[in-house]
Design a protein that fits this description.
The protein is α+β, with helices and mostly antiparallel strands. The chain is 41% helix and 18% strand. It has two domains: 19-108, Roll (Nuclear Transport Factor 2, Chain: A), CATH 3.10.450; 121-302, 3-Layer(aba) Sandwich (Glutaredoxin). It has helices at residues 33-42, 48-59, 121-130, 154-169, 188-201, 203-215, 225-236, 240-247, 250-265, 289-302; strands at residues 19-20, 66-74, 81-89, 92-100, 107-108, 135-136, 144-149, 174-179, 270-271, 273-276, 279-281. The strands form three sheets. Strands 6-8-7-10-11 form a five-stranded mixed β-sheet. Strands 2-3-4-5 form a four-stranded antiparallel β-sheet. A two-stranded antiparallel ribbon has the order 1-9. A hairpin with a 2-residue loop joins strand 10 (273-276) and strand 11 (279-281). The longest helix has 16 residues, at 154-169. The protein is globular and about 55 Å long. It starts with 18 loop residues before the first strand and ends with a helix.
């Protein structure tokens, strides 16, 4: 979903169109461990009881909405506490994010974005060093587009026409797909494992495989996922039995964990998330094609 579901609420928690851990897409890099520990020591975080009471006061009027606190931790911005809460309704679930001020009396909702003369360089540098997924386009392209995707995510499926159109319009750009399976999806991790193995077997087969997986997404369940993905791998032009065996190996699991870690290092919180030379693009299916092309063309002029 850049919306797994959409709810109109008094406190706008920014339910966008994404399968996500947060509607806010904060770009940047992960903090080193020593900085993180220092930050935790400096920030007075709200208790779970306080957050739960806040949620009750905010959403208690709506019997169909429930929640679960996912994490309470220091925000990337010094002094703020970051609270991630899974909100659920009959339409689905989504983990939304808000920030708590140092006085503990105010919550801030919105994006934390990078700032500076070259605001996207930090994310670009991290991605340039870490991307390992299947790619299309010249490796020395002036623009690299990275998608973090989840094969079970309906929003990723919905965004594919826009992404494919962008790739077709920008043949001199490099496009890289990185697996980012979300925990809320019950076969996404297995889908990522199969995709990883197909990608290592054949780049051409990989693009056919993910296209067909999105096409038949609604027919795949946690119970039939191995059967379905094995067949899709066969249809893509690789040996499905070999791919199934590869998907179950520790090496493949390590590949997926590395891709997840890379996404988290640049603050990916939902899928699909695009990076164009380090610039985060959310709500992909809702961004006009001319805007996406304009961002790519502008990035190309800025150089590497």
């Amino acid at each position: 979903m850049r919306n797994c579901f959409s709810v109109v609420i008094v406190l706008v928690m920014a339910f966008g169109m994404a399968c996500s851990f947060s509607a806010a897409q904060a770009a940047g890099t992960a903090k080193p461990a020593d900085q993180q520990q220092a930050s935790e020591a400096a920030v007075k975080l709200p208790s779970e009881a306080t957050v739960d009471s806040f949620m009750q006061q905010t959403f208690g009027y709506e019997a169909q909405i429930s929640w679960k606190i996912a994490s309470i931790k220091p925000a990337p911005v010094p002094g703020l506490g970051q609270v991630d809460v899974i909100l659920a309704s009959p339409q689905g679930q989504q983990l939304s994010r808000f920030y708590v001020t140092p006085d503990g009396e105010h919550a801030v909702i919105g994006d934390i974005i990078p700032f500076g003369a070259r605001p996207f360089d930090a994310a670009k540098k991290t991605l340039d060093k870490g991307i390992t997924g299947p790619s299309r386009g010249p490796k020395d392209a002036p623009v690299t587009i990275v998608e973090f995707g989840d094969l079970q995510c309906p929003a990723c499926k919905a965004a594919q026409p826009a992404i494919e159109s962008l790739i077709a319009a920008e043949p001199n750009a490099r496009f890289v797909f990185q697996n980012f399976p979300l925990e809320m999806h019950n076969w996404a991790a297995k889908g990522a494992a199969y995709a990883d193995c197909v990608g290592h077997a054949s780049s051409e087969a990989f693009w056919k495989f993910i296209a067909k997986t999105y096409e038949t997404q609604a027919d795949i369940t946690a119970e039939n996922v191995d059967e379905k993905l094995t067949a899709l791998a066969n249809d893509a032009g690789v040996k499905g039995a070999d791919i199934a065996a590869c998907a179950a190996t520790p090496v493949t699991k390590a590949h997926i964990e590395a891709s997840l870690a890379l996404g988290k290092a640049v603050n990916v919180t939902g899928t699909p998330t695009l990076f164009i030379n380090g610039r985060t693009i959310g709500n992909v299916s809702q961004v006009p094609a001319t805007t996406l092309k304009g961002i790519v063309d502008f990035a190309a002029k800025q150089g590497n």
